[in-house]
Amino acid sequence: MRLVLLLAVLVLVFVWGWERNSDARAIARMNPAERAKLYAATRAEAIGLCSDPELLERCRAQVELLSHFPECDGECQTFVARYRPRGVR
């Protein structure tokens, strides 16, 4: 019984991880020129959304997407970290 429960938990964790990284996999498979255009548009939208406190949830969704782009350099990662939700204890 414990083995079945452990296996079920492992499968759930794997599926959750696979689903969570689906955006990153899709972005990585894109044509580099198209990905660069999408990155620029996503970053511009994130900057606009994050400048309005009333749009914080949409801002966070955009910065999460932005963080998956390989083009997201140090400056971009700093921006992402500023608006990514903090962990709660």
In a few lines, what is going on in this structure?
This protein has 89 residues and is mainly alpha-helical. It has helices spanning 2-20, 22-28, 32-50, 56-66, 74-83.
Could you list some keywords that capture this structure?
89 residues; 5 helices; mainly alpha
| Continuous helix count | 5
What is the SS-derived class? mainly alpha
- Mean pLDDT over all positions: 82
DSSP strand count: 0
Instruction: Please give the alpha-carbon distance between the first and last residues.
Output: 32 Å
Strand content: under 5%
Cα shape:
extended
Given as residue ranges, the uncertain stretches (5+ residues, pLDDT < 50) are: none
Which sequence of SSEs, written as H and E, runs from N to C?
A: HHHHH
Which bin fits the share of residues in helices?
Answer: over 70%
Rg (CA only): 17 Å
Main sheet specs: none
What count of structural domains?
1
